[in-house]
Hints:
By secondary structure, the protein is mainly α. The protein has a single domain (2-63), classed as BFD-like [2Fe-2S]-binding domain (Arc Repressor Mutant, subunit A), CATH 1.10.10. The protein contains 4 helices and 2 strands; from the N terminus they run ββαααα. Strand 1 (2-4) and strand 2 form a beta hairpin. Helix 1 (11-19) packs across helix 3.
Amino acid sequence: MYVCVCNAVTERHIAQAVQQGARQLKDLRRALRVSADCGRCARCAHQCLQATLTSPDLGRAAARFPSLMLAEA
Ligand code: FES
């Protein structure tokens, strides 16, 4: 599911960002540009981030998509 339509960011991208160290919305903004444009995705992105951080499967989804690379800060 797309979380940020403006930047084509999905739940899987967020899971991968968490795998690589993202812990706050500002980390997602820096890595994926989530909420950096219209900002309508901020709440959903935050919820997705929290769900991923508390998931016992943390990183499993991201590991399935190793070709996705985060943008450099
Ligand atoms: S939907 Fe994420 S910045 Fe617009």
